[in-house]
Amino acid sequence: MKMIGVDVGGTFTDFVYSDMESGTLAIHKVSTTPADPSKGVMQGIVELCQQNAIDPSEIAYVLHGTTTATNAVLEGKGAVCGMITNDGFRDIIHIGRHQRPEHYSIRQDIPWQARPLIRRQHRKTVPGRIVPPTGEELVPLDEEAVREAARELAAEGVEAVAICFLFSFLNPAHENRAKEIVEEEMPGVFVTTSSFISPQFREFERFTTAGLATFIGPKVDRYIAHLDAALRDLGMTAELRIMASNGGVATPKMVVEKPALTLQSGLAAGVLGGGWIGAQDGRDRLITFDIGGTSADIGIIVDGKVTETDARSTSIAGFPLLMPMLDIHTIGAGGGSIAHQDRGGAFRVGPQSAGAEPGPAAYGRGGTEPTVTDANVVLGRLAPQDFLGGEMGLDVEASKKVIADLAERLKLSPEEAAEGVLTILNANMANAIRSRTVQKGIDPRGFALVAMGGAGPLHGAEVARMLSIPEILVPPFPGITSAMGLLTTDLKYDLTRTQFQLSTDVDLNRINGDLDRMEAMLTTQFAEDHIPPEAISFSRMADMRYQGQGYELTVEVPAGLIDANALETLWENFHAAHAAEYGHAFRTNPIEIVNLRTIARATLPKLGALSAPAGGSRDTAFERKVQTVFRLGGKLESFETSVYARAKLPVDEEISGPAIITQKDSTTVVPPDASFRQLPSGSLLITLGEVK
């Protein structure tokens, strides 16, 4: 079976082709086309097929990680949205909760107030009320009021509508009927309901999640339709699958219905790719460190499992998101990050990026700001003949000029300014990793750092040193690891039902009934995707807390019928999870089941182990000597550094740094006090000296 994985980044779009039967693997990169990312996608697929004599009609799957939804939210360039909600509650998505992003700041940025997804004039209210605890109707829905609200929204030019009623997670009848009415009055407009997008309690988060889906829905719909049509025009009959933020892939139909699934789409693929790389070398405790042109994305894998976010910390651009999502932390730090002085004169790097256009000054496309890429050029870590395998030249003089201008403003030498850019960037990334490890009780010294992305191998060793991480894994194709991650996952859907049941009074019939109904609904969904029931596997999770707590922990629910014995196992799972998270458990306290979640998977063909590297020798891999600047012991020094071609490196032979290893999709830097060797899997293992 032949498959192509496509990951769209801020600067480059990456491609990997795999023939599962022959083991053939091919990679490719093109510049991202920000105005219409599908153009870059199609250009890359055409070039990849032409360069490798691949018949497009033989491709079975195209798996795609997209940034369309994420960028729309980050840039505030979504649809003109409207909302219909209960009388008296139009401002829920403005007020939010009593917790603020920064508790003690009087000048903080509150995204849902400063940059509302749905402007107040487009929020309409109607009579009607569903109430707890069972979702009975207290006030009938005023259908004529819904029609009038829809007509007003149409007159105001609204392009998408979210239907958000209180307690719809208990009974979606009012939301469903309102959706039918709006679709009658506003044909062709994207309409969704909060109970369809996220049937969970917490109305602020549920409403905001529906608002995010509405904000990005029309753009995602257009993009997927355009891309699918372009694939067909190329003569491809491949099944298109889109990476979802829960770590699985979804069909175009599901993505169009639930566009919020694609928030952090490509980032999830990167973590999966990093986990797959680690597994090839028997490592299951990993920190994935993916640096592209615009951002650095960090994921944690413990005992082979990718950690997921919880309801209290899942967000995108500051907006809470009540959907399953891999725990990925992103900061504005990449090869295109711009070095500058802030208004107080402090030396900063990022989060602003030069992106793909114009890009760093080194790209020769008109960039005039000093970037991380330019700093690496000035320090001798990137050379024109090595970049993208020599397919893209670098303007060394342009890099020297912008760094020299920065150095003059900072009253430093060009080398000191360039090294300062890298030190600040590396410190920012190390702090981001600490926030996901040390601050959560995880010791990063027991992990390996997987340095990937186009710029990850340039910075991995120095970031690892800041965290006392002893070893760094550099994948065989670090620049396209996210694209490879797309070929390691399954079709995956989730459903959630809110419970609110105490361990002192559990309704087993309700629990088993909800679990059975969720499995049936997921089976029906997979049937629409032409997946038979026997190909589906299920797992169940529960969000739980001690009575009186405000947030939950997610634990595994035993398989099969839930009876008294299964409940005891469930309670014990929660006590253990609480002790692991907080250091203690209250075994005599009542436990509350808040949500039940069912996850369904259908297996897709997967990338197999890569062919062992052919292996060469140190002499055949050696290309030249260059002068490269490093800081050791607080002193800036220039070192004679060996440059090696990765494709010709020997296997399992230790080579001391300093060294630069070149390949088409990335460049790896090994500091002077480190060594590296190529493993039989094809990954590079960098070992740092004097790590404590």
Account of the protein in words:
It is built from 18 helices and 33 strands. The protein starts with a strand and ends with a strand. With 692 residues, it is an alpha+beta fold. The strands form eight sheets. Strands 13, 14, 15, 18, 21, 22, 29, 32 and 33 form a nine-stranded mixed sheet that branches. A six-stranded mixed sheet has the order 3-2-1-4-11-12. Strands 6-5-9-10 form a four-stranded parallel sheet, with helices on both faces. The protein folds into five domains: 2-72 and 222-262, ATPase, nucleotide binding domain (Nucleotidyltransferase, domain 5), CATH 3.30.420; 76-215; 276-320 and 425-485, Nucleotidyltransferase, domain 5; 491-602, Dna Ligase, domain 1 (2-Layer Sandwich), CATH 3.30.1490; 618-688, no CATH class. It holds the Pfam family Hydant_A_C. This is Methylhydantoinase. It comes from Pseudodonghicola xiamenensis.
Secondary-structure map with pairings?
Layout: E1 2-8, E2 12-19, E3 25-31, H1 37-51, E4 59-65, H2 68-75, E5 81-86, H3 92-95, H4 111-114, E6 123-126, E7 129-131, E8 136-139, H5 143-155, E9 160-164, H6 173-185, E10 190-193, H7 194-197, H8 203-233, E11 239-243, E12 249-250, H9 252-257, H10 265-280, E13 286-291, E14 296-302, E15 305-306, E16 315-316, E17 319-320, E18 328-331, E19 337-341, E20 347-353, H11 372-378, H12 396-410, H13 414-436, E21 448-452, H14 456-466, E22 471-474, H15 481-485, E23 491-502, H16 508-528, E24 536-546, E25 553-556, H17 564-582, E26 591-602, H18 618-621, E27 622-632, E28 635-645, E29 655-656, E30 659-662, E31 667-670, E32 674-678, E33 684-688
Parallel strand pairs: 1-4, 4-11, 5-6, 5-9, 9-10, 13-21, 21-22, 28-30
Antiparallel strand pairs: 1-2, 2-3, 7-8, 11-12, 13-14, 14-15, 14-18, 16-17, 19-20, 22-33, 23-26, 24-25, 24-26, 27-28, 29-32, 30-31, 32-33
